[in-house]
Amino acid sequence: MPRFDLPLAELEAYRPTVSEPRDFDDFWAATLAGSREAGGEVTVSAASDLFSAVHVHDVTFPGFGGEPVKAWLILPTHREGPLPAVVEFIGYGGGRGLPSERLSWAAAGYASFIMDTRGQGSVWGSGGETPDPHGSGPAVPGFLTRGIDSPETYYYRRVFTDAVRAIDAVRGLPEIDERRVAVCGGSQGGGIALAAAGLSDGLVAVMPDVPFLCHFERAVGLTGSDPYQEVVRYLSVHRGAEDQVFETLSYFDGVAFARRATAPALFSVGLLDPVCPPSTVYAAFNAYAGSDKAITVYPFNEHEGGLGHQWQAQAAFLARLLRSDARDEVSA
What we know:
- By secondary structure, this protein is an alpha/beta fold.
- The protein has a single domain, classed as Alpha/Beta hydrolase fold, catalytic domain (Rossmann fold).
- It contains eleven helices and nine strands.
- The chain has helices at residues 8-12, 24-37, 104-107, 155-171, 188-199, 216-222, 228-237, 242-249, 254-258, 278-287, 308-331; strands at 43-46, 54-62, 68-76, 83-89, 111-115, 176-186, 205-209, 265-270, 293-298.
- A nine-stranded mixed β-sheet has the order 1-2-3-5-4-6-7-8-9, sandwiched between helices.
- Helix 2 (24-37) crosses helix 4.
- The mean pLDDT is 96.
- It comes from Microbacterium imperiale.
- Substrate binds at residue 92.
């Protein structure tokens, strides 16, 4: 893939005007309050006897509207006291898969919580188990245009609420130190992590890897790749719907959530990425409100980014933060 976006020096200074609705905060406050008021129980049950170094638990927690959402909770077998936790969100079309595919964070000594993405899990990987019980108006195959005629009905309203409620659920588990919860994810998972960071207080770290769902207006006009092309195909049929579509998307733009997020953050970007163009990632990174932020740049990589190299960077980043936090507690 040849370079098609801005040069790196321009990316580092790229701070576009990204539209944001006046009632953005009220919309999300009402959405989250309604889902919390809907209640619902968190259930945790042992899920596998295949592992000796970790304990795997099948979790169901209340998400949007109190609707049940599945997750894995993976804990190191040998642990003392409550653990810091990493809540992980999944890329587009994938589900929580199998626990054997997600052992890295538990192997590093963390409680690992992997959220299933409602309605997804049948495009790649080992599947998902959380339905999305909501219908949709006309939409292009995929998820990006489901319910796009209104922010109230838009698919990602439910997904982002699920993510916040996942953090709520994790903080309530006895094995978890509620003060030390981080979020991460790649592509769609990175966009969900940004939304969760903008809507949740007190996170210890945010790690969006090649994040999707950022700076929609530029992405839709710049890349010829899916999933953003789903919006192009929708608008090519629903002529004249552009204003309403981008009005809806403005409630879900990662740039708006980045403006509200303050936890220490480590982003990543592939400068040849045709799926999540570099300028859309930098739009969110440069808008990010937290002062402790960094971005790992992969000059010759596409949407795969750094893969295992980025996980190592995240693990080092999170370990540094927790060491610093521990020193602060001792000095206090």
